[in-house]
Amino acid sequence: MTLGIVARCAVTGHLGAALVGDVVGIGQYTDVIRSGVGAVLVQGRFDSALVHLGLNLLEQGLAPRAVLDELLLQEDASQRQMAVIDAAGGCAVHCGAGCRGASSVLKGEGWAVLGENLGNDASARAVAQAFAAASGALDERLMTALEAARSTEAPARAGHEGSAAVILYGSARGCAAQLFLRNDLAPDPVGELRLIFDEYKAVEPLYAMRVSDPSAALTPAQIDAAAKLAAARKAAAA
Predict the structure, then answer these.
(1) pTM of the predicted model, to two decimals?
(2) Cβ(53)–Cβ(71) under 8 Å?
(3) Do 124 and 138 meet the contact criterion of CB atoms below 8 Å apart?
């Protein structure tokens, strides 16, 4: 099972992606975004060269549909799911007839969901609906979408370990990822990624401060305060 969502925030222009699957280290497949340019998500018969080809074509000014048409000319397109999103939120998707098991591809305004070899054919729809209904920052909306996948896929995946990841880029060209969190192997990869995400968000302002002032260091008091805030958030969510 692999479920992925890639999206652009209409307010900030940020680009992000989130994936969950019953494989080890799905986070290694999240190198799908180029800040200020767009995103190319490939599932099924994954090929990183296709991702970089798509991103290069977007950077040259091709529209998502034109980029996807070029990618479909490559070998084994029938065994792939692909989504292309540009920096303006334009989107094009593909689901090959040779993808494994129950497969689904959905798209909306500035987002796309890909699901392959699903235990529940409603899973991709649940992810899409959760993302569309969520509000707030893009990374939080992506986490909410993953949690929808967790709830719909859980019965079919009982006893299986897996992994999950979420990544976020800003809108300016050439920027590094603002956030990249992953859980490479766990019985409940999304649930544990949520804990990691919440703890990171509690200290995120401190890391942002260090970017603006590299001489700044996290004091023991700051670390302790962030840990207490994260614990309070977990207790409130329980």
Answers:
(1) 0.87
(2) yes
(3) no
> Hey, how many other C-beta atoms are within 10 angstroms of the C-beta on 155?
9
Tell me the domains of the chain and their CATH numbers. 2-187 (3.60.20.10)
Per residue of the chain (238 residues), what is the pLDDT tens digit? 899 999 999 999 999 999 999 889 999 999 999 999 999 999 999 999 999 999 999 999 999 999 999 999 998 999 999 999 999 999 999 999 999 888 999 999 999 999 998 877 788 999 999 999 999 999 999 999 999 988 777 544 555 789 999 999 999 998 889 999 999 999 999 999 999 999 899 888 777 776 667 666 666 676 677 677 777 766 776 6
CA atoms of 225 and 207, how far apart (whole Å): 14
